[in-house]
Amino acid sequence: MMSAARQAPEPRIAALVISDFLVDICLREHPSLAGRPLAVVDGISRREVVAANRAARGVQAGMTPKQARAACPGLVVIARDEKAEREATSELLDALETCSPAVEAPRPGACFFDARGLPGGETGAIGSAVALAATLGLRASAAVADDKFSAYCAALTGGGCSIVPPGASAAFLAPLPVSLLPLAPGDGERFDLLGLRLLGQIAALPTAPLAARFGERAREYACLARGEQRDPLRPRRAQTVYEERFAFESPVDRLEPLFFALRGCIAGIADRLAGAAQVCDRVNILLIVDATNSIEQTGMRADPPSQRAGAGVAPVADVQVALAEPSASAAVIFDLARVALESREQIGSVEAVIVRAAPCGEPPPQLGLFDGFGGSRNAALAATLARLHASLAEHEVVTLQTQGRRSRMPERMQRREPVTSPRQFIRSDAPRCRAGDARAARPGGRSLPQMQPQVWAPALRLVDPPLPMQPPAQESARAGPFRLSESWWEQPVERDYYQMTDRSGALVLAFFDIRRGGWYVQGVFD
Amino acid sequence: MTVRYAELHAHSNFTLLDGGSHPEELIARAKQLGYAGIAITDRDGLYGAVRFAQAGRDEDVPAVIGAELTMEDQSHLIVLVEDKTGYANLSRLLSRARLDHPRGQPVTGYDLLETHGRGLIALSGCRHGAMSQLLERGDFRGACARAAQLRDIFGWGNFWIELQRHLEPDDGPRIRALTAVAQKLELGLVATGGVHYAQPEHRDLADVLACIRLKTTLEQAGTQLRPNGEYYLRSPEEMARWFVEHPRAVANSVAIAQRCGFRLRKLENEFPDFPLPPGETSFSYLHALVHEGVQRRYRPVTSEVSRQIAHELAVIEKLDLSGYFLIVWDMVRFAREHDILVQGRGSAANSAVCYALGITSVDPVGLKLLFERFLSEERDEPPDIDLDTPSGDQREQLIQYIYDRYGREHAGMVAEVITYRARSAVRDIGKALGLSLDQVDALAKSLDTGSAATVADEAMQIDNKPRHTQLHVTKHGERLPMTAAEVESAMAALPPALRIDLQGDVARRLYELCRRIDGFPRHLSQHVGGMVVTRSPLIEIAPLEPAAMPDRTILCWDKDDCAMLGLIKIDILGLGMLDAIELALADIEHSRGMKIDFADLRACDDSRIYDMLCEADTVGLFQVESRAQMATLPRLRPRCFYDIVVQVAIIRPGPIQGDMVHPYIRRRRGLEPVTYPHPTLKGVLERTLGVPLFQEQGMRLAIEAAGFTPGQADELRRAMGHKRSREKMEKLHGRLLEGMARNGIARDLADRLFQMLSAFADYGFPESHAASFALIVYVSAYLKRYYAPEFFAALLNAQPMGFYSPATLIGDARRHNVTVLSADVNASRFECTVEPLEGGLRRHLQPSDVVTHPWEHPVALRIGLSLVHGIGAKHKEMLNAERARGPYADLRDFVLRTRLPKDVLESLASVGAFGCFGLARRAALWDVQRLGNLKDAGALERDMTVDEPGVALPAMQQREEAAADYRGLGLSTRYQIMEFYRPQLAAMRVRRACDLRSLPNRLVLKVAGVVTTRQRPGTAKGFVFTTMEDETGLINVIIRPDVYKRYRPIARDEPTVVVEGVLQRQDGHVNVLARRFWKLDSQGLAQGLESRDFH
Omega of the bond prior to B481 within 30 degrees of 0, cis? Predict the structure, then answer.
């Protein structure tokens, strides 16, 4: 037996489980919240609680923040930060890869890695893994077994570190509750009625009758319950970063030679991406700048010394080019890179240029940017956005979403949304303004558009937030008041609106705040 | 100069979920502001008109009746009633709008206005008026055309252009445009407020109501709410300021209000003609029927009977009510001819005429009942006859008979206005405030109070400390178990319900809004049995609308409104117990071949029935099964029919509040002498041992002690019962004291007598009513005593009814030695039945069985399939038809023939209903998993059989069987939960129910059981009465308010509890006065059990 095992070693899988992953992530980002009742919320149109810590008594998944606060006074509500989760997962995987070469992260808060032949043995490996997670601020438990399901169950139910000996998965799983299986809705209750409450009972049933009653999924239940899952590890792929370099014979301070070099580098990268059937959504252009040029002058970031192309040699300017859509098109990348560099006022004397691109995702159909074959409105939109993103900071490219039905207060009637992709416009019909919204967009709600011909209706440029103004003179001409009072249930607003000319003679929409007692300009009619 | 103004456009809260004030609040505010009049203009209805008119009379404010009509183009139009013709026309318009269109979407056509516009004054309406809408679209010509059309319909001077201002941006343009229309067509202008609430402070509630209507939250409602709070009643001066450019518009409001002279008040002679035989008048025919009935019912006919009959007939003739009695007699005749059990209840039983006509079943002469409680010359309202019938088809048969007999034009059901109570208010307002369904549901369920006004008080008493500290949630809400043991404990530790911070801002706002919404109408429903019949077409008297049930129309008013207008109402009330009695009689005839005639029981003299009542063996009986009744029975020890009458009447708020229960019991037991407040009252109070218990005694007391006429005495009774008639009460109080003084009764005694009267004037029973009910008590007791299996089967089939759940009824049946057989697909019918108790079925008593009444029964009770979870009325026909085809051969045959869904098959399997096929419960469940899909399979697959290896499933433990029974049936025919805990409970020295009677008084002990009922009567000063059941019987627990507060989460919500308390034994009745509670973790066993709480 022993020799046979040595001849064909069975897989050994370690599982690392972080039960309170989302909460731990929040606490990593906001350490001062430790010990306070905390709920993590997620969602766009309806935000709801997805996780909560133990101090958040009475809070349950699915509650809105308001409901959760009503349930637990003093609750801190934090928005789910998927970026932080990705980073934490990435850090955790990086760390775990120091334990094992093959690491898989199937879902947030759970990792598997190959536990065979690790220095320090299985106990040492999972001990180290738990310790590594702890250093990252994540409270984890870990276990090793022959298969992923057994290891996961052991980590989940054992607490700390557990080892399920080789060949003992079935025996280990047998006394555990059936609820640990990935059961389809209703199956749990049916198993309970049949008196099948332990994995061992499921394992003992013949598979065919079980499948005849519960469908093909029951075969998987049986397989898992017997510890016979042989789903191999799918380790995260080591990421390849494509890089092309070009060194000038002497520093250049004009764009033309820089573009010449850049075009070659980008073409090289594009070829490599295309060869691997990959695309990228971001390209980094590193400019090695002549040391005699000061950083202040160029306005460019200097990387820390350790990251410089040559330690202690020259500062590096990192120009990031974000693509509208993932692409492997050299023309697309180059055009954006050109816009990005042209928008910089000074680039200094460049000694060398390095272009890096990391592949991402599956290649989507790529819109043609600036190359004339796109033609469609979507393509033009994508091109425009890409140009804007290239020349402006990401958060500066926004779209205004009207929210005419949400409130009659002008400042609440629109919302700025960052634009990251032209798909936002394809998916959403929000920019279309309905008649009802148009009416509601006037302070006070309804209007009589046909009574006042459209040509009379001046456009209102919103002042957000409203600015205090001098009280108008008694004799000043004004129309109103139009009384607006709403939100009495949370932050009451009571305003008397007037259309009037201010002291400069401009036609403004102003209001008197009845609660606070001051005058404010809400907008200017163009 | 004083400005005069009348508000002609005001919505009350009867513009459902829109108006924010009661009609009375509008009137009160109008009076405060000195209005020259105010109109109620609720949308498409006159629901609040009667209350509004009454308040107008009370406050002396001209109350104009009107409505806002939704027109066919969805615009709004205000119409005001000028005269009686106008009222009839408005009623017709509103009726047609509802009867001719889908339910809940009333629409009035312009063509109807042309035919029914007389006597009405129309206003052009708010911003949703036709003119405003057309002007908003820029269609000035269209607006003029519509205005001209309406002017032509209503006539010159009867159509006015309405101007409203609410400080909104489009006020000015709209008013200018409307003024232009008026000028062009030479129409008058009138200013109105477009009012939706009386005072500015009511705006928040109006917004919340809007959210409830729109099914949204305040946060999400946004622009669907009104932009500001300017829709309240403004002072005349303010209106004049706002319409300074149109002073005539303000003045015109007064002129229009003065023109609208119609006031909604008592209707006259609206009684329909009864179809008579040729040559008869209604009185002569009634006279003949009564005398025929007297000969049949009174043998011999004494002079006393003749005198009483003559007196009653004279009163009836004088009040011209013969037709009314004939109508009721006709209904009873129809019921008898169609074998429908029917019995008059209430004060009608005071009438010998009703007794002679067969309307009632107790002899008022023999019981010396006071006729004037039913009818008197002085009384300015029609008599009220309530008929009890079995609920269900037979009651419907009777209702349809009235429709057929008098025509749908003249008969209709009375509406019932469903108003906000504590739970509905918390649910609706909580959702509008943005709380989750779970949160509002949890809070609503935790409330004992019925009144929305006292939600805050009660919420403050709730212990809201979370008892569960562990929480593990993921995005999908599943638990993340840690260890195998924690998996189980985490399941148990999850919060049973979601709570809210009861001291928080949201909660406080909720309480405040609840306080104010209390009594607001939420929706209209059909009264359970109130019918109105009229001489004039009903459609001209009150707006009609279709009921949810087919073939029914309902009036827009509730019974109080109908009474206020003097409409003749007959209540046909479905009584669950009559249903049960009827079913039991049919079963007895079927199973034993015996036909029981109630005439044989009329003597009510079987001592064994009284023995049963004396020992409070009354679970399932009519009226006397409540905790309080059971506590009183062993002390009162009824031995004759009149004792039952007293028993029925004594446990009522009136006698309890008047502190009359204990004196009566002490006197009855000879523990204190029988005395009378005054010698003149001996005749009145002699039968009740000097203690007034009945309404009639209160009236007689006024007659004897203060010299009141019977009519005046009845007036006094009614004045005492109505809180709003304070002035009337004061007047009568003075007259009562004067009369008593004349008869030599000292002032302090007179005051005491007055207090005594007022305590039970409205909340006590009339003696006649108690007597009618007592008869049903006796019959139900008789059936339980001699035909227990049939009786319990009938009770189960007549559910929901009574105080106890089916599980408790089955427990009681078993203690009465009834063999209860479980559901079986081949043996059971749809309903519960009885079947011969053959040797094999005879129940063999186990040591754990406690049979308190070892009566012998030749039949057994078989549980019907209707009790199985998932099987409902829709399956009845199919199951009966299949069963009639013959027994099912096996499970496969059953599945293919019934084609029931898989979850129902699972329920049947889990309760052992496939036992007839030799299948154990789990084996049946295992097979159902495969065969359950057969109904959707093709023919080939249906005919295919599969050989598969046998599977050894663990057999169900007894506990598991019990749990499956409770989950699948709501009861168990073999087990009682507590028997599974008895060894542990015995180790803890927890006593059994059957042991309590033999234990010494004041012993401190522990008891445990399943909670079957919880009651907190308003008269009990916060005491809570709980009944628990263990495997040996019922245990009565009394919880003091302080103990209840401390242990509320357990005492109120846990299905199984352990109680430590002090044993109290008094006169054969045993209670446990609770001191401490523990939760008894039933580990899911009690999952399907329901207690009946806070009746």
Answer: no
- Write the pLDDT tens digit of every residue in B698-754: 888 888 888 888 778 877 777 776 554 556 667 778 888 888 888 888 888 888 888
Do B227 and A206 count as a contact with CB atoms less than 8 A apart?
no
User: What residues of chain A lie within 8 A of the CB of B946, using their CB?
Assistant: 212
Closest CA in chain B for residue A499: B169
User: What does the pLDDT read at residue B722?
Assistant: 58
DSSP B48-112: THHHHHHHHHHHT--EEEEEEEEBTTS-EEEEEE-SHHHHHHHHHHHHHHHHTS-TT---B-HHH
> Which amino acid would we find at residue B379?
R
Helix/strand/coil percent split, chain B, to 5: 50, 15, 40
DSSP calls for A49-100: EEEE-TTSTT--TT--HHHHHHHSTT-EEEE--HHHHHHHHHHHHHHHTTT-
| pLDDT digits 0-9 by tens, B319-376 | 888 888 898 899 999 998 998 888 888 788 889 999 999 898 888 888 888 888 888 7
Which residues in chain A have their CB less than 8 angstroms from residue B167's CB?
Answer: 444, 481-483, 496
| C-beta separation of B1010 from B1062 below 8 A | no
Q: Give the CA angle between residues A391, A396, A402 to the nearest 5°.
A: 135
Which residues in chain B have their CB less than 8 angstroms from residue A206's CB? 948-949, 951
The torsion angle over the Cα atoms of residues A374, A379, A384 and A390, rounded to 10 degrees, is -80
Which of B222, B438, B925 faces A194 most closely, judged by CB atoms?
A: B925
Q: B218 to chain A: which residues are within 8 Å by CB?
A: 489
| Residues of B whose CB is below 8 A from A452 | 173
- Rounded CA-CA distance A315/A244 in Å is 19
Q: Give the distance from residue B473's alpha carbon to the nearest chain A alpha carbon, in angstroms.
A: 5
Minimal C-alpha gap between B789 and chain A (Å): 32
What would the pLDDT profile of B1068-1085 be if each residue is shown by its tens digit?
789 999 998 888 876 667
A209 and B218 within 8 Å at the Cβ level: the answer is: no
- Reply yes or no on whether the pLDDT at B401 is more than 80: yes
Side chain identity at residue B902, one-letter code: K
- How many other β-carbons are positioned within 10 Å of the β-carbon of residue A183? 16
Q: Is the pTM of this model over 0.80?
A: no
- pLDDT computed for residue B1055 by the predictor: 86
Are the beta carbons of B499 and A71 separated by less than 8 Å? yes
Q: Which residue of B has its CA nearest to A183?
A: B478
Q: Are the beta carbons of B25 and B79 closer than 8 angstroms?
A: no
Nearest Cα to A514, choosing from A489, A490, A482?
A: A482
What does the alpha-carbon distance between residue B719 and residue B1061 come to, in Å, rounded to a whole number? 44
Residue B241 has, within 13 A of its CA and on its CB side, a CA count of 7
Q: Are A179 and B481 in contact (CB < 8 Å)?
A: yes
Measured distance between the N- and C-terminal CA atoms of chain A, rounded to whole angstroms: 89
Chain B hits for A49, Cβ within 8 Å: 473
| Per-residue pLDDT band at A377 (split at 50, 70, 90) | low
SS3 A123: helix
Residue owning tokens 């012998």: B856
Residue-wise pLDDT for B965-1023, tens only, equals 988 998 998 888 888 888 888 888 899 999 998 899 999 999 999 999 888 877 677 88
Task: For A215, name the nearest residue in chain B, comparing CA atoms only.
Answer: B930
* Contact (CB<8Å) A70/B922: no
User: Is B856 buried (19+), middle (13-18) or exposed (0-12) by CB count in 10 A?
Assistant: exposed
Label residues B309-327 b or e (16+ Cβ within 10 Å = b): beebbebbbeeebbbbbbb
Q: Are A446 and B474 a contacting pair at CB < 8 A?
A: no
Bigger pLDDT: B45 or B449? B45
Range list of H helices, B157-302? 171-185, 203-214, 218-221, 236-242, 247-259, 282-297
